[in-house]
Amino acid sequence: MARVDYLNDPNAPKANSIAVAVSVFIQDDEGRILMIRRTDNDLYSIPGGQLELGETLSQAAVREVREETGIECEVTGVVGLYSNPNHVIAYDDGEVRQEFSICFRACKVGGFLRKSSESKEVLWVYKSELVDFLMHPSIDLRVKHALEPRNDVFFS
């Protein structure tokens, strides 16, 4: 399903739903960041997706990373809580979702990189290489917050 993200756009469609989503920031032993290139909007992102019935938030984070990248991970903390009503995501089925996402920090515990139906590219990226990757500003913000030396959780 195709999607279009709108941020601070006065012409954006009005939200008609909200759903709990998770995203996951993972660095390997070399400090590289796990990134995907999404199939639905062709942008680079950290792995993530929607919470499913019957699972916890951390289970959703682990599942989404596994599904989209092939990497097994363990959640180790929270980067931030993102709920900007000026960020809406329009899907081609008519749903327009207001952003609500919890970004987790996790560590790799196994697995091997592989693509999926949601990720046309999966790779480890050095921080210095991020400027070469087109990301939505909301993902860029999560990565920025994850890389900052902070002990508190960001929230909006």
Question: Which properties best describe this structure?
Answer:
156 residues, alpha/beta, Nucleoside Triphosphate Pyrophosphohydrolase, five-stranded mixed beta sheet, four-stranded mixed beta sheet, globular
Task: Please tell me about this protein's structure.
By secondary structure, the chain is of the alpha/beta class. The protein has 2 helices and 12 strands; from the N terminus they run ββββββαβββββαβ. The protein has helices spanning 57-69, 137-147; strands at 3-7, 17-18, 21-26, 33-38, 44-45, 48-50, 71-82, 87-91, 96-98, 101-111, 119-125, 154-155. It has a 5-stranded mixed β-sheet, sandwiched between helices. Strands 1-8-9-2 form a 4-stranded mixed β-sheet, with no helix packed on it. It has a 3-stranded antiparallel β-sheet with strand order 5-4-11, with no helix packed on it. β8 (87-91) and β9 (96-98) form a beta hairpin. The relative contact order is 0.28.
